[in-house]
Amino acid sequence: MGDVIEAPSVPRAGTVRPEAGRSAALSVSNVSLVYAGGRGREVVALDRVSLDVSPNEFCVIVGPSGCGKSSLLYLIAGLNEATSGQMAVNGVSVHEPGPDRGMVFQGYTLFPWLTVRQNIEYGPKRQGMSAAERSGIVDRYLAEIGLTQFAEHYPAMLSGGMRQRVAIARALANDPGVLLMDEPFGALDSQTRATMQKLLLRIWEQHKKTVLFVTHDIDEALLLGDRVVVMSARPGRIKAELSIALPRPRSMDLALEPDFIALKRRILDLLRDEIDEEH
Ligand SMILES: Nc1ncnc2c1ncn2[C@@H]1O[C@H](COP(=O)(O)OP(=O)(O)OP(=O)(O)O)[C@@H](O)[C@H]1O
Ligand SMILES: [Mg+2]
Fold first, then answer.
1. Distance 278 CA to ligand 1 centre (A)
2. Which of 55, 162, 234, 236 has the fewest Cβ atoms surrounding its Cβ within 10 A?
3. What is the pLDDT of residues 130-169, one digit of tens each?
């Protein structure tokens, strides 16, 4: 069963965590983010968030809409700068996007003017890899996502699920240590979503990536995660962490098991408290 570690409701600023971040693949330390809103109104999107993700860990974030999940992933991706606090990937401070982090975001679309092959090889090309090396990488990932036949197609000629598969391949082609995924399957029908979850688990097990994955779907969180981090409503804080000790390989058959149901109920209760408090 999972251990539930409740985060203190008011994080103690300046708390010394000597071990924090040392061996983490991804370390977020006391990060706050304030957006400048219109007419001088500020939005505190994240409030002193600290999170360490271990190498090869599959960490899932859930939380009410607007609690800052996407904001947090954008910061780690280096697409925005925190108001305060630090972030590091494999011990290196994050200030801009880099090939050490692969991104698969719901709205992070493929380049429509490039073919599937060109989309996947975009990163390796920017890294200066030779055409022969690139073509080896692209062929490997095309086979892995089952789209070898579609290499010369343009994104507009693909279904939503196929495009998301290409987006995953494009992120993996850079061989990033960390994969940042923001509701990557949110727009897919349930059958395609199930196929994509299986594909992602297979890739994660094979390539041993560190994954930070945002979802609204608790079943998906429990199917995928080693740990589920629950965030509180705005301003986003870490409310609780549950370690998910369900056996792997996992399938949705697990959803009928008492351990799964107990974890799901626990997460639903934590989320319900947040939504009730907001209203
Ligand atoms: N560029 C921005 N400028 C101002 N406020 C913003 C900006 N981006 C997000 N926000 C605000 O910050 C808060 C957190 O937004 P964010 O998109 O990170 O939430 P989220 O947890 O990803 O929500 P959802 O589950 O709906 O995707 C929200 O109140 C949002 O309105
Ligand atoms: Mg979001």
1. 16
2. 55
3. 999 999 999 999 998 899 999 999 999 999 889 999 999 9
